[in-house]
């Protein structure tokens, strides 16, 4: 936890926030919506993983500078595959599930991700109980900065 | 994506795994992700727009500047925009009522109004408000614009984002800024509703 002090400051400068948002908006504006009219980043996020995956794709794009059309194409392909799948066996509609799939596809194409390794890691995450190290009541304060 | 159905728990785990792997690969940092999340968590909301409206109501010189160059006038209030992305305030008068829409997607004056409401992105709103604005205002928003008032619908794009400067309600002379702020609704700045009534 020694690195906690390196967290970036929040967007206190409105101009900076504005730039960051505009950059994101520009990315998502041309993306396909879903059958429910869902659009990236602008509908509420229903689950924490959705906003994480949304942010990851944008962060990856910023860092790697890959062609955004690549991501867009992967997103379209994933949505189309869902639309063409048998309604009886496909999962329920989730815009961000396709978003995750598109991110995976782009990362795999860049050689940065192996599906099998991701699968293993996912199972690891699932195998760890959510409260593994935190399964008992902690009745006392865990840190005290005493009065002087 | 494999076509197997995933539960929320499974997909959340997969995203967590993906995040940890991409961080290990040096593709991103937790901070970069948090920062991106933050953009959407700390919404500016429509109160900035309300501030600009009240200032225009109470300061005629500011009103002039706002109507002449909205982007610049907003900067006076610390409302940031981006270069090449102009804000334009449309003033409602006794004879003209303005409404905004983005016919293509959902371009919205977010520096002043925050995130757009869901209906703003609805293809139905986008199409109908253009076709029959007065009727849509009446039927979908219960907002009656008198027949004597012209309704103008403006199409926002990413380069030029409109928002509406509503009229100051009668009977608010001498009101404090705080009192006035409470009157300015988001709907009134989109043009689909009135400002709150002066109680």
From TrEMBL, chain A:
InterPro entries linked to this entry: CN_hydtase_beta-like_N, CN_hydtase_beta_C, Elect_transpt_acc-like_dom_sf, Nitrile_Hydratase_acc_put
Short name of one Pfam family: NHase_beta_N
Residue stretches making up the Nitrile hydratase beta subunit-like N-terminal domain: 28-131
Name recorded for this polypeptide: Nitrile hydratase accessory protein
Provenance organism: Nocardioides zeae
From TrEMBL, chain B:
Protein name per its UniProtKB record: nitrile hydratase
Alphabetized SUPFAM superfamilies for the sequence: Nitrile hydratase alpha chain
Domain of life: Bacteria
Sorted UniProt keywords: Iron, Lyase, Metal-binding
Class of this enzyme: lyase
Enzymatic reactions: an aliphatic primary amide = an aliphatic nitrile + H2O
Family statement drawn from the similarity comment of this UniProt entry: Belongs to the nitrile hydratase subunit alpha family.
Phylogenetic lineage: Bacteria, Bacillati, Actinomycetota, Actinomycetes, Propionibacteriales
Annotated gene: nthA
GO molecular function, one term: nitrile hydratase activity
Organism of origin: Nocardioides zeae
Protein residues bound to Fe(3+): 102, 105-107
Enzyme Commission designation: 4.2.1.84
NCBIfam families to which the protein is assigned, alphabetical: nitrile_alph
InterPro entries: CN_Hdrase_a/SCN_Hdrase_g_sf (IPR036648), CN_Hdrtase_a/SCN_Hdrlase_g (IPR004232), CN_Hdrtase_asu/SCN_Hdrlase_gsu (IPR023900), Nitrile_hydratase_asu (IPR018141)
Residues of the Nitrile hydratase alpha/Thiocyanate hydrolase gamma domain: 10-193
Gene3D superfamilies: Nitrile hydratase alpha /Thiocyanate hydrolase gamma
Keyword Iron applies: yes
């Amino acid at each position: 936890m020694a690195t906690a002090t390196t967290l970036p400051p929040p967007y206190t400068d409105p101009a900076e926030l504005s730039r960051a948002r505009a950059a994101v908006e520009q990315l998502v504006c041309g993306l396909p919506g879903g059958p429910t009219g869902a659009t990236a980043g602008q509908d509420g996020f229903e689950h924490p993983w959705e906003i994480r995956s949304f942010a990851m794709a944008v962060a990856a794009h910023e860092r790697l500078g890959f062609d955004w059309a690549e991501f867009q194409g992967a997103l379209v392909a994933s949505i189309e595959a869902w639309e063409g799948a048998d309604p009886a066996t496909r999962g329920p509609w989730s815009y961000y599930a396709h978003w995750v799939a598109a991110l995976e596809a782009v990362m795999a194409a860049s050689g940065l991700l192996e599906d099998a390794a991701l699968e293993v890691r996912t199972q690891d995450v699932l195998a760890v109980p959510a409260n593994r190290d935190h399964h008992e009541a902690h009745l006392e304060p865990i840190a005290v900065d005493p009065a002087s | 994506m494999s076509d197997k159905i995933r539960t929320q728990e499974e997909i959340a785990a997969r995203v967590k795994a993906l995040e940890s792997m991409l961080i290990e690969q040096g593709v991103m940092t937790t901070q970069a992700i948090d920062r991106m999340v933050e953009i959407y968590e700390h919404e500016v909301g429509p109160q900035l727009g309300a501030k600009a409206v009240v200032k225009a109501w109470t300061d005629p010189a500011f009103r002039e500047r706002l109507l002449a160059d909205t982007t610049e006038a907003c900067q006076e209030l610390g409302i940031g925009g981006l270069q090449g992305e102009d804000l334009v305030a449309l003033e409602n008068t006794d004879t003209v009522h303005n409404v905004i829409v983005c016919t293509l997607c959902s371009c919205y004056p977010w520096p002043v109004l925050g995130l757009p409401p869901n209906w703003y992105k609805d293809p139905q709103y986008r199409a109908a408000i253009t076709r029959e604005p007065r009727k849509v205002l009446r039927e979908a928003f219960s907002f009656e614009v008198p027949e004597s008032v012209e309704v103008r619908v403006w199409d926002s794009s990413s380069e030029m984002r409109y928002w509406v400067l509503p009229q100051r309600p009668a009977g608010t002379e001498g009101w404090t800024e705080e009192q006035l702020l409470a009157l300015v609704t988001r709907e009134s700045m989109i043009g689909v509703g009135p400002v709150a009534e002066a109680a």
